[in-house]
Amino acid sequence: MTVVAQAPPEADDIAARAPHRRFPVDKLAGSGLIVAMLAFSVHSLWQLDFSWSSMRSSVNTAVTTFAKMDPISLPSAGDLMYLIGLTVGIVVLGTLMAALISVPVAWACAANTSPSPVLRWAGRAVGVVTRAVPDVVLAMAFAMAFALGSPLPGILAMGIHSIGMISKLFADAIEQSDDGPRLAVRAAGGSRAQEFWAATFPQVLPSWIATVLHRFDINLRGSAILGYAGVGGLGYAMRVAFQQFPEGYGRGLGIAIVIFVLCVVLEIVSSTIRRHLLGADPAGRGLGGTIARAATGDRPTTPRRGRVVTALANAGSRLGTSRLFSLPLRPVRALRARRQGEVCTAGRNVTVESMLTRPWTRARVRNLTWTWGAVALVVASWRWADVSFSQISWAYVLPTVQSFWPPDFGSHTFAEFAQAMLITVQVAFAAALLSLVLSVVFGALAARNVAPNPRVRSFFRVVLVIFRGVPELVLAIFLIMITGLGNQAGVIALAFGGIGLLGKLVADSFEEVPRGVERAVTATGATRTQRFAAATWPVGTPALISSSLYLVDTNIRAATILGIVGGGGVGFYITQASTVMSLHGQVTTLVMMIFVTVLLVEAISAWLRRVFR
Amino acid sequence: MNSTTPSPVVSVTNVTKCFGQVRALHDVTMTVDPGEVVVLLGLSGSGKSTLLRHLNGLEQPTSGAVEVLGQPVPQLRAPALRALRCRVAMIFQQFELVPSLTVLENVLTGALGRLRGPRLGLWAYPRALRLDALTRLDRVGLLDKAYQRADELSGGQQQRVAIARALMQDPQLLLADEPVASLDPESSAQVMRLVREIAAADGLTVVCSLHQVDIALGWADRIVGLRGGEVVLDTSTDHLSKAQVMQVYRDLEPDDSDARLAALDLELTSALVGTGSGNAT
Known about the structure:
Strand content of chain A: under 5%
Structural class of chain A: mainly alpha
Order of helices and strands of chain A: HHHHHHHHHHHHHHHHHHHHHHHHH
Structural class of chain B: alpha/beta
Distance between the termini of chain B: 32 Å
Number of strands of chain B: 10
Strand order of the largest sheet of chain B: 6-7-8-3-9-10
Oligomer: heterodimer
Largest sheet of chain B: 6 strands, mixed
Number of helices of chain A: 25
Largest interface: A-B, 47 and 63 residues
Radius of gyration of chain A: 27 Å
Distance between the termini of chain A: 44 Å
Shape of chain A: globular
Number of helices of chain B: 9
Strand content of chain B: 15-25%
Order of helices and strands of chain B: EEEHEEHEHHHEHEHEEHH
C-alpha cells in the first residue's frame, strides 16, 4: 500500500477526530480542595472578626495607646548589655546543645549510616517529636525542676526543640554525602564508627555548621517568647515592661527594637561566616543575609532552576518549623580551578621531618581563629548566662518527665480542645490568605520579568526584605499589647512575616519562568497582562501552591505560640496546662493534636504538589 | 612468571554472585600466587569489580569459596574480617578520598584498622603514625602536598594519595579497581608505573581490574579475562600479543546478544588503534 496525501478534512470532521480530553479527576479534586481551603480562609477571617468596624476600633485603641504611652526608651547601657549577653548566651548554648545531640540522631536517621531500621525509626521519631513541641512550652514545663531565674529551662527547651530541624537537615546531608570514602575506610579495616568519623563527618561538617548557624538565627528570633516562660533576657524584660501601662510601654517598644536590630546584626555575622568560611550561600533570606551579600559583593549564583527549592529550604527553618528540605551548600571550593594533570615531583626543600609540623598557612590561621572564637563564645555564654548545675532540682526531674504521660483532657473535653485547635488553624489560614494575596502582588512586582521597570522591582525587593526582618513573635506581642486583641493581632503579625517569605518565593518562581515561553507569547502580539496570564502565572502556580501550604504549616506552629502571649486557640490551653505539673497530660494531648493537624496539612500539600506538577 | 607456589594469596573457587535476577559472576575459579601482578580484564559489567570486591569481603558470594591470605573471607565475622582488611589494601577508580580533609589526614585513614576508636583531626593520630604517613607520601612523590586539601589535587595526584593511603596499611595484597579509568593517559602511565614499582620493591601481590588491553599487556604478569561474569581467559602475558588477547574474545560464540560482542570488538579494536588506553577521560 502506498500512502497518499489526504484531502484537507472538513472542519466538523476535525472536532470528531480530535482526541477527547480525559476527564481530569485529580486536577478537579485538587482545584476543589484549593477552593475549599480558600473559602475556609475567608471564613476564618470573618470568624476572627476582621470586619471593617472591628479593625477601625483596633486602630483607634492602638492610636490611644500610642498617645498615652511613654516615649520609646531603653534600659541603661549596662542593663542592656547584660540582657543582650544573656539572650545571646542562652541561644548559643541551646543551639549548641541541639547541634551536639543532632549528630547521633542524624547518624541513626540517615539511610547510609544507620545501623538498624529500629534505630532509624527511633531517630526519626525523636526528630518529629522535638520539632512538634514548641520550645516555650518545654521551658514552662521544665520550670519546676530548676531554681527560679535559672537560664537552664530556656537552654534545654531550645536545645530539645532544635534537635528536630538540625538532625533532619544533617541526616539529609549525610545521605547526600559520597559513599566512596566510607567504602575506602571500610576496605582498610575501619570500624563503623571510624567510617563515620573519618569519612562521612568531614564531608558533612560544613553543612552541619551552616545548619547550626541558621538555626541560631531562628532561635534568636524566637528567643523573646522564652521570657513568657520566665527565662531571663530581652524577652523577659520586654514582657515585664509591657505589664505596666503606660510607663512600661515605651521601654517595651524600645526593647522590641533592640531585639530586631540584634536579629539583623547576628544574621549578618552568621551569613558572613557561612559564606566565607564554608563556601555556602547565606541561607538567610532576611535582611542580614541580604546585607551580607551586598557587603561581600556577591550576587546569588545558585542555578536558577534551584532557586525556589533553595528559598524554600531557607524558609524551611523559619520559626523553627523546619520543613524537610536540606540546606543548600554551594561547593565554592569545587569551583576553584584545579591544576589538572600537573605532575609533581617531591623534594622542594621539604623533608618528612620538616613536614611533621603543619605550616602556618592563611587557611590554617583562619580556621584556628574561627574555632577558638567559637570556643570563646561558648565559654563566655556559659559564664554570662551563669549556668550552674546546682540550679537543677534533681528531685523534680523524673516527676516532670513522667508527668507528660499519659495524655489526658483534665477538666476539659475533647470538644473544647478541638474548638481551640480550630481557632489556631483559622488564625493560620487567615494569616496565610492575607500573606498570599499581598505577596502575589508584592512578589510579582518584585519579579524582574513582571515588574514594569527595575526601580519598581528593587523597591519591592527591599520591602519584602524588611517584612522578613521583623521577628513575627515580637511584632505579635507588640500588636497584642497595643490593640488589646489577641487573634487579630496574631493574624496580622503572622501575615507580615508570611509576606516576606511568600513574596520572595513568588518573585523567585516568577523569575524562574523560562524567558522563551514569555517571548513566544509576546511574539503572538499579546499584551503585558496577557503574557502574565498565559505564560508567567501558569508556570509559577505549582510553586505558589506548595509554598502557600508550607506557610499554613509554619503558621499553625507559630499560631500555637501566639496563644501563649495572649492570643486564643490551643496556645492558651497549653500555657495554662504547662505551668502546673499535674496538668502536663493535657500538654501532651494538645501537642499531639497540633502534630496530627500539621501532618494533615503536609499530606494535603504533598498530594496537591503531585497533582499540579 | 608462571609461579607454582603451594599456598596462593588469593584462591577463588566456583564463585557465583547474583544481584537479584542479575548474575554478576558465574562459576569463577582463579588463584593468585604471592608476588604476582594479575589483571582482571574485561568490559564494564563483565564482573571484574564484583570479583575484586569479594576479595576483601565488600561482597558476599551467592555460592562458592573465597580464600584470601589463608582466610575464608565470606565466613569471617566482623573483627576477623577487619583484621584481614588491614592486610588487604584497595584503591578505587574515583580515588575515594575525603575531599575536605588534608592529604595527610586522608593517608592516615589507612591506619584506622590498626587503631581503636574513631579519629577526628590530625592530632588524633600518634606522632609515629603521622611520621609514617609522611614517609608514604614521600614515596608517592607528594610530600610537599601533605597539608593541602585533597580536592585541590589533580586526579593523578589524588590517586597517588590513595596509593599512599593503601601503603599505610603495609598490605600483603593490593586490590586496584580500575585505578586509571578516570585519569588522562599521562597520569595513567605514572600511576601504573608507581604501583608496579612498589609491588616489585615490597613483594606485593596485586590484583587490578582494567578494561584497557594495552595497559594490561605491558603491565601484568598474568591476565584473567572476564566476560559476562565468566572467566574466558587466564594466561601469562609472556609471549602474548594484543592480537592473541583479542582473538580469545573474537572466537567466542555470541551467547545472548550479537550487539554485546560487537561492542566488545569495537572496544578492543579502539584500544588497539588508539595511542594507549581506550578510555574516556
